[in-house]
Design a protein that fits this description.
single chain, alpha+beta, Aminopeptidase, five-stranded mixed sheet, 5 helices, about 30% helix
Length: about 170
């Protein structure tokens, strides 16, 4: 109520909702992953499937977790993350592998709300940090992340070994 004693009209519900992914979401999540790959000009790098994603998210030993944003009765955004560990902090952390909002749903506060929800998960679990990578050409994303207080670390580079290189590295010499 406000000072005049008249009841205030209830606030309208937000135009979107965020929830943890659950079994049955794998196809919608994989479609968002494909849209992300297309946006990043990396469609050729996608070799997985919705079925494999379901195993990794909802199987007996989950490798990652995801949040889904729904709007207009559609999955329009997601964040996929997993735990890591900081030896310097001696605390667990969360690594945000991907966050994506379909272009037609941007500028509605979805990305900020989704990133805040991941940060809340990290805080609730006692994590010392939340980290992610951003492509150097994606200036709009860099600016967005910095506006939320993120630092883009200039001295760090990602190292990656995959496929045949990973198999070769694992072999004794």
């Amino acid at each position: 109520m406000y000072a005049g004693g008249m009841p205030q009209a209830p606030l309208p519900p937000p135009p979107f909702s965020i929830r943890p992914a659950r079994p049955g979401d794998e196809q919608a999540l994989f479609e968002l992953i494909l849209a992300l790959a297309e946006y990043e000009k990396l469609s050729q790098a996608v070799t997985g499937s919705a079925q494999k994603l379901a195993q990794d998210l909802f199987g007996p030993k989950p490798a990652a977790e995801a949040l889904i944003v729904e709007a207009d009765e559609l999955a329009v955004a997601f964040a996929l993350f997993f735990h890591n560990y900081s030896t310097f902090l001696t605390q667990p952390g969360l690594y945000l592998e991907d966050i994506f909002v379909r272009p037609e749903y941007r500028a509605r506060g979805i990305g900020k709300a989704l990133l805040r929800e991941v940060a809340k998960v990290a805080g609730d679990r006692g994590c010392g940090r939340l980290e992610w990578s951003v492509l150097d050409w994606n200036q709009s994303a860099i600016g967005f992340y910095q506006s939320l207080g993120a630092s883009v670390l200039p001295d760090w580079r990602i190292c990656r070994v995959t496929g045949d290189g990973l198999a070769a590295l694992a072999q004794p010499r």
